[in-house]
Amino acid sequence: MTTVQARPTPDNRRWKALAVCLTAGFISLLDTSIVNVALPSMEHGLAASEAAQSWVVSGYALTFGLVLVPAGRLGDMRGRRQAFLLGLALFTLASAACGLAHSASWLVLFRLLQGTAAGLIAPQTSGLIQQMFQGSERAKAFGLLGSVIGVSTAVGPLAGGLLINAVGTDSGWRWVFFVNLPIGVAAFVAGLRLLPRIPASTGKREEFDLFGVLLLGAAVLALMLPLVQEQQWTGRLKWALLPVAALLLAAFWAWERRQGQRGRAPLVDLGLFSLRSFTLGSLISLTYFAGFTTVFFVYSLFLQNTVGYSALAAGISVLPFAAASAVGAAIGGRLVMRHGRKLVVLGLSGVVVGLLGVVVAVQLAPLQSVGWATAVPMFIGGIGSGLTVSPNTTLTLTRVPVHRAGAAGGVLQTGQRIGSAAGIAVVGAVYFAHQANHERSVTAIQLGLLTAVGISLIALLLAVTDLRERHVHPEPERAVEPARQGSEEGGAGEAVGSR
Length: 499
Prior knowledge:
disordered C terminus
């Protein structure tokens, strides 16, 4: 059956408010990859050690992932507008502090703060989309969000290369952070005027599950630390943290169940996982991000270290993927209401075909022409990426009750961050293990990309499984909670992708 719910009051300003959210989301996601090409500049201009450079990259990803779920819950409880503006202000100030850092230690500290702010922003964006839009408009809004996710990740190396090339090696790394300042200030001012002031809850004031936050935070930390530090922490002892993470996650699950049984508001509503769309969509997102984000990591290293491309040239080489991803996401946002999970299957198939095309191009093309030779398969993979991220985000969150949208978005994006860290650890290990000498560099990139293809195939298998289940059990899923809770606390929304 279709859940009936009150619709938000039409307001043309909500599209402008969405632009504010997407702008903030873009710069926060851009900072996950833009610093990669600036590391040599940091080493030259700041005398940053290899360990410090590692923490500039991994520290941001770590705090980003740690904050997502509690930040989403905070927005659900206290208001997404306030949480979003707080995160954006903190992100802008932390960016300024990063650019002004006079030592590598201070830079690492400010990057940790910047990652925390990014984690505060991200779940509010998906929550605000749930709050402001319905039906086909919501699918279109999530399509735009998917474009931002795909393009910001892919365009980071290009943006960093342009800045380093324009400013120079000594201080170019500072402008990687300074570029956020005018964008952040403009988005904050616009957000004050445009973001909706609808309160987060119309019911009683809920308590914040602090112990749940501590359990989940410890679990995510134990899970991500060995992944983000895989290259820096030698030896196998680091992997002992993974069973610790599993135990902490089990304890968190038990605690959240107890919270629900006692009638208290949990950090994560475990009823969300009774929704097949949310559970399968989250798993697809985790595995897909483990595959596709690693491509830019190893491919950029290959182009710069083996082929001899500059940071700018390496960034331009992945531009076809970024541009095609935006196009694919826009198309996916328009078609997801009609075709549902079929789009995700099509998109993942395109990603696999595109990456296999890159492997073949690297094998057949002369090294100096490899950037041109991979343009077409990169474009195909980018179209597939857009058709994957945008529709999957819509399908994953569309049945989530609006007053749980922030926490649900936090869970989804935590999976993305964990997937990215795990993928880089696995694919990076394969790549570096086969790059012992220059003669094997081509083999190294091919095996690294084939590993990414294997991970993407897991995501494709999950999508196909979900599609088949829908044919065998075609009945629509119910929302987690009843719909009649006011205009803000509406139910899950219209059925999407039931085909």
